[in-house]
What does this fold into?
Amino acid sequence: MTTKKDSKAKAAKPGSKTARKSARAAAKPVDAIKLLKDDHKEVKGYFKQYETLEDDAEKQALADKICLALTVHAQIEEEIFYPATREAIDDDDLLDEAEVEHASAKQLIAEIQAMKAGDRLFDAKVTVLGEYIDHHVKEEEGEMFPESRDGDLDLKQLGEQLAARKAELMAQTKM
It folds into this structure.
């Protein structure tokens, strides 16, 4: 027997775990840097998990999840965070490097998406993508984020924009 309370709780939940997480993130204001670091941590976990997989179907599903998460993350950084940071800090070289790193990652993502798990070089490409991302994250978290925090940025307002755009992009992919 289902109570009123039970049916309300079930009706209010968006479909997937990722959709619920995105909806929660959009609902409460979060510091932009915290949001981006949380994304970094999540994707790092995906790469670690990928290393343990042997089944091609599981590898394919996780590689798809990695590619989507990175694509959305890169898009919100490029559309919102990087332009705001470029205005707030005096380090164009750092932002230029980040954009070039994004371009390299996007190229590798496109190659992975054009392949299937089990194809020659599929695992190698996912591994190299993880290495690119690890390097990129170290630079962002070690250099760009501290400079951004010291700059004249409203990180809460920027976080709200990032969360809303991320939720919008995730909803478009039906995740």
Observations:
- Confidence is low (pLDDT under 50) at residues 1-14.
- Residues 56-88 form the longest helix (33 residues).
- The chain is about 80% helix and 0% strand.
